C-alpha cells in the first residue's frame, strides 16, 4: 500500500517527474531537483552548526548506483550550489564513519562485510582495505526492502486485523491509513529502543 502525497508523471523524454500541489499551485520536479533541495538543507544545517560557509562536498551513493545515477547525484549537488569533489559508495563511507581506517585493532589489510538496512533499501557489500584504501569488491541487496517496507507490512497487517475485529475496512481511507502507519512506526521505534 503506497501512500504518497504526490503523483509520478512522465516529463520531457519520459523522464519521471514528481507532481504535487504546493501553496495551491501544481509543481513538477525531477529527482535531481528534489535531491538538490535535500542537499541544500543539509548544507544550510552544516553551515549553521559550523558557522562557516560550505562550498565543497563529498556525496555518498549506494554502491549499486550506475553511472547515470551517479551523474544525476553530481547534478543535484551542482543545482544545490555545491562543488562536488567526489562521489563515494555508502558502504565505504560507513566503514570510514565507523572508524575502521583508524582502529588500532584492525589489520592493515583485510575484508569487511557491511550490512546497511536503510529507509527503503537493504544493501550488503564486501570491501577490502589495504593501505587505508577501501575498495568495494561486491555489492548486492534489495532496492525494495527497508524501513518503509516494514512500516507498510505492519500497517497492512493491522488494517486487516481492524477489519477482522471491527468489521470495518479502512484500506480505502488514506487519512486513517496514515494514522495507522504513524502508530506502527512509533510502536516499531519503541520496540527497537528497548534493545538499544
Number of strands: 8
Strand order of the largest sheet: 1-2-3
Low-pLDDT runs of 5+ residues are none
Largest sheet: 3 strands, antiparallel
CATH architectural label of the largest domain: 2-Layer Sandwich
Instruction: Name the overall outline.
Output: globular
Mean pLDDT comes to 87
Number of helices: 5
Structural class comes to: alpha+beta
Question: At the fourth CATH level, what is the homologous superfamily of the largest domain?
Answer: ATPase, nucleotide binding domain
DSSP strand content: 25-35%
Radius of gyration computed on alpha carbons: 21 Å
Task: Report on this structure.
This protein has 196 residues and is an alpha+beta fold. The protein has two domains: 31-137, 2-Layer Sandwich (Nucleotidyltransferase, domain 5), CATH 3.30.420.40; 147-194, Alpha-Beta Complex (Actin, Chain A, domain 4), CATH 3.90.640. The chain has five helices and eight strands, in the order βββαβαβαβββαα. Helix 1 crosses helix 2 (67-79) and helix 4 crosses helix 5 (174-194). The longest helix is centred in the C-terminal third of the chain and has 21 residues, at 174-194. The chain is globular, with a radius of gyration of 21 Å. It holds the Pfam family HSP70.
Quick structural gist:
The chain is of the alpha+beta class and 196 residues long.
Please name the defining characteristics of this protein.
Heat_shock_70_CS; about 40% helix; Nucleotidyltransferase, domain 5; 5 helices; about 200 residues; 2 domains; three-stranded antiparallel β-sheet; ATP-dependent protein folding chaperone; single chain; alpha+beta; Actin, Chain A, domain 4
